[in-house]
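Protein in question reproduced for absentees:

***
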Amino acid sequence: MKLLAFDTSTQWLTVACANGTQWVERAELAGQAHSQRLLPLVDEVLGEAQLALGDLDGLAFGAGPGSFTGVRIACGVAQGLGLGAGLRLVPVSTLEALAESAWQSHGWTRVVACLDARMREVYVAGYRREDSRWVVERNAAVLRPDDIAGDSRASNGAGDGFAAYPDLASRLALEAVDAAVIPSARAIAALAIPRVAAGETVRAADALPLYVRHRVALTTAEREGGMRL
């Protein structure tokens, strides 16, 4: 299958392309430069894979949760490319992609995926791998670290939420943690390929971000009144 995937939900920018015989990947610590760097990297991987957009079977992107601006960039670029080339899209949860990345790196089959959400909160979800797919054990949510309930089942932790809140791993009694794992484009593509094959895609116009946090800002009056998102 020929598939392009990318993610801009964290400080990292990752792009991957499968051309049917090999993977071509790029990853760089882009910081705030996702909007400037995404399309050049897309051109690079497509060129190395010797593909044009019209050759692809589908396009996948990290739909969130994550950086509000980053998630919007990925969704907007995916919609634009999809509309221009007539491609079907697969929005992929960045938390599920974290679990997939952890499995690719470590072989972990039960993962608590955790991303720093800023504002003293994290995005968190739990997954269990069955055969070649992930089953949700803890629904995606945005929570204060102290509000995350423990689980008696052995799990491993993945994502920068564990770097932002180092005590979280021991409080959840996790077996191991890799805070450097990111929702890579390769992981997003791996999750998207069977969905494309099964026809589980959306039109470009219907591809939407997954924010989890329904609001991303407070008014001045709300902040002064002590409200938090």
Notes: The longest helix spans residues 68-85.
